[in-house]
Amino acid sequence: ELILYRPGENPEKLEADQKDGYGSEVLYFAGCIENGTETECVTNESVLEVLRSVELAKESLSENRVKEIY
After folding, report:
1. Separation between Cα atoms, residue 68 and residue 59, nearest integer Å
2. Residue 7 and residue 19 in contact, taking contact as beta carbons nearer than 8 Å
3. What stretches of the chain show up as alpha helix (H) in DSSP?
4. pLDDT along the chain (70 residues), means of 10
């Protein structure tokens, strides 16, 4: 279950795509390696943003409180 919490608003339940996102990413990445091409979908900045989000999610779980993503 995926729930979006916005300040001052009621929590909103979101529908999540049932695809295996990691599997799709691995196939895309493997194709780039196989073809000798650079990735076009993922930038260094987006990787850092994802890592920061994961860190905040882990902190949120361990502290049992909502963390803001900025």
Report:
1. 11
2. no
3. 21-35, 44-63
4. 86 79 79 88 79 90 85
Q: Counting Cβ atoms within 10 Å, is residue 60 exposed (0-12), middle (13-18) or buried (19+)?
A: middle
Nearest to 22 by CA among 14, 34, 30: 30
Residue 41 bridge partners (DSSP): none
Alpha carbon of residue 44 to chain centroid:
14
Looking at residue 47, what is its pLDDT?
77
The Cα–Cα gap between 48 and 62 comes to 21
